[in-house]
Structures are given as C-alpha cells and as structure tokens.
Amino acid sequence: MNQEFTDAVYQIVGAIPAGRVASYGQVARQAGYPRHARFVGRLMSRLPEGSALPWHRVIRGDGGLPLAGTPSGEIQIQRLSDEGVTVLGNRVPKSCFWQP
DNA sequence: GTGTTGACATGCT
DNA sequence: AAGCATGCCAACA
Hints:
This protein has 100 residues and is mainly α. It has one domain (3-96): Orthogonal Bundle (Arc Repressor Mutant, subunit A), CATH 1.10.10. It has four helices and two strands, in the order αβααβα. It has helices at residues 3-15, 24-31, 37-46, 71-83; strands at residues 22-23, 58-59. Strands 1-2 form a two-stranded parallel sheet. It binds a DNA duplex (13 and 13 nucleotides) through α2, α3, β2 and α4.
C-alpha cells in the first residue's frame, strides 16, 4: 500500500495551522495525489481517536462539515471554534481555508 | 478476482 | 441556490 501517501497525508494534516482548515482534496493535492480526496476522508474515519492528528481541520471543499449532525461533528465544530475558526451552522467561510 | 463502499470533487440541470 | 449525476482510487467482504 502507499505508505508514502499515508505518511504524506499525516504530514499535511499535521501542518495545518490552527485557525485554518483544509479540504480533503486540498490535502490530497498537497500530498501529491490529487485524486485521493476520498482516501483522505477514509484515513480520517479509520484513524484512532488517540491520534494527535488534527483531523477536525480537514473538511469538504465547500466548507461543509461532513460529520454535521454526529457527535464527532459537534466536537469538530467545538474545536474549530476554539481555535478561532468561524463556524456558521455546519459550514466554514472559505476565508478560513488554509492557503499554502 | 469481483463487487460494494466511502468524513470527496467537479460539472450540469 | 440547491440537487442530481459521474469520476476516482483504495480498502473490505
């Protein structure tokens, strides 16, 4: 399997600064695999909770929260708000997106 | 080896 | 503006 890709994704997600968010496609693209947006999401979902990975900073390209309505989503919103990200309902302004 | 699934993206209606 | 349809790729059964 692509350990490289997995590692790259971890790197990218871990490199997202607080107060900023990045889309799955964005992360995948930065990792060097533009078509693996889904795989990024898959990695997030399969990730252990104890992981120090800021998965809550990874959202959809539209700024929508895929986990909206679920406990994890609430936690995600809570954390993002705590980090200074403006979360309107189940969405985030594009201005909060990570700009490399 | 085949078929289905998924924390997505993009385009068209 | 919102919703529907297609594409993409890797893991799982």
